Amino acid sequence: MLLRLFLLFTLIPVVELALLVEAGSRIGVAPTIAIVLLTGALGAWLARAQGLQALRRLQDALRAAQFPGEEIFDGVIILAGGLLLLTPGFLTDILGFFALIPGTRHLLKTLVKRQVQGRMPDKRGGAVHVHYSVD
Would 127 be classed as within a structural domain? Predict the structure, then answer.
């Protein structure tokens, strides 16, 4: 786990920096900075809009006395996407937009659920499989 975190916090920024330098040398510094600022602003707007929708769905589920499992996963992924878009760089922006667009967010949510379920042992030593149902 420590090695993964080390790679995450060292390798990704180095790759992002290299991509920004390369983009700056190909299209110029001003357009590169403009792209970074534009994706940040667009990402902040999208994160706010998607976050408010997720919050409304969470409130609706609570009012209906349902466990808001899907809404919680959506909220966490939207938060992560917004944070990724605040980080300057092209790779983090792409992943951030994937987290904020509902169709691709569903794919990320499925991956996150599998990871969470795989880490939850049940009393028999197997994995817990959480199923959400609407009654």
Answer: no
Take residue 133 and report the two structure tokens written for it: 């149902």
CA 45 to chain centre: 15
Instruction: Report yes or no: 101 and 84 within 8 Å, Cβ to Cβ.
Output: no
In Å, the largest CA–CA distance within the chain is 59
* Residue 127 φ then ψ, to 5°: -95, 145
User: Whole domain around residue 40: which residue ranges?
Assistant: 2-118
Asked if residue 81 is part of any domain, the answer here is: yes
Give 74: exposed, middle or buried? Use CB within 10 Å, 0-12, 13-18, 19+. buried
Q: Contact at 8 Å (CB) between 71 and 61?
A: yes
Q: How confident is the model at residue 113 (pLDDT cuts 50, 70, 90)?
A: confident
- Give this prediction's pTM: 0.76
